[in-house]
Fold this sequence. Notes:
Shape: elongated
Number of strands: 13
Oligomer: single chain
Helix content: 10-25%
Distance between the termini: 11 Å
Amino acid sequence: MVLYFFDKDGRLMNDDILNNSDQYQIFFTVSDLDDKGNPYEVMDCRGTWKQPRKKRADETDEDYCNEINKDLSLVDTTPVPATDFAEKTTWEDRAAATPDVFYYEYRDTWQHDLMSDGARDMFNQKLLPPLDRNDAANGYVWDPDQDRVGLKGHITFGGWSNNELGWRDRQGWPYLIKSRRDTYIGTPWRMNRDSYLLPKFYLSVRIMKCEKGKKALIPAKAYQYGVDGLYRHPTYEFSSKFVCTDYNAPFRTEWYKEKGVIQEATQWTEVARFNIPIKVFCSSYDSDPTAADPYEPFYYYMGREMNLSPVDAVEAASGVQTNSIGGGRGFANWYL
C-alpha cells in the first residue's frame, strides 16, 4: 500500500515528509470506528456452515463426494461477529490485537520516486541515521533499522497470526477434498486443519507527529530481546542503537519509560486519521498448494465472492502471474 499526500495546491508532499521523517510515523491498526466515525463490529467472513448428510451404505465414495460437493448451501458466507473481538471495542484494545489480523511491514524509500521497486525487501529502504544507502544495498541491516514512516508498506493478513480458529472447532469443513485421500481408508479427505479469521473490518490509518529527534527512542537491544514481552529473532545484530516503535503501537515508549528502560517517551500528536474498509474473503492458508482442490475453503470462498463456482474459481486463479513471493503466501494477489 502506497499513500500519496498533496498540499492545497495539488503538489505531492511525499518527499517533504521523507525529508522530515524524524518527526512523522503512520500507524496501522484494526479501527474502533468505521469511515463515518461510528463504532462497529469486526466480522468473520467465514460465516457459518452445517454438516452434510451421512454416506449411505449403497453409495460409492465417488457418488457421495460428487453429490455433497454440489450442495453449495452447506456454507452460508454471510459474515458473523468475530468472537475474538467481542470484548475489544476501544482503539487501544484493537490495536493490541491487530497482529492477530495482519502484519504491516514498513517499506519507505529514500525518495518517493524509488517506491516502484518492490521486488527486493530491503533495496532502497530508508534507514535510521547514521546508516545510509550503501548500508541498505550491502544488506547489513534488518527491519528495525528502517526509518519507519508508512508512505509505503506491505500488509500480510493472517500469515503469522496466533488467532487460529479451526474447522475442527466447528465439526470440520463440510466439503470433501478429492485431490487428497484419507491416509488409512482411502476416502476423500475431510479438511480438519486450523483456519485463520477472514476479517471484515476498518483499517485505522493514523498520521502522527512528534518533536524533532524524539521518534526513535527505543534501545535496539531492548527491542530485539523482547523487554516488552514480544519475541524478535535474537540472532540478528541491529546496526541502529535506537529504533522506532511498531506499526500498531504509537504509545509503546510509555511502557519502556515506566519500566525504566528509557528516560522519556515519544509524545505523539495526531495530524490526521482515516478509516479504510477491508474485507479479507479468502486465505491461501486454507489450501494445500501441493494438491489444490476446488472444494478447499480457499477456492470455495474466492468463488462465492466473485460469483463463480469453486471449479471455475480454480480455473480463474490458475496460470495467473502474481507479484507475491510464492510458497503459499499471496495466492490471491492477482485479484487484489
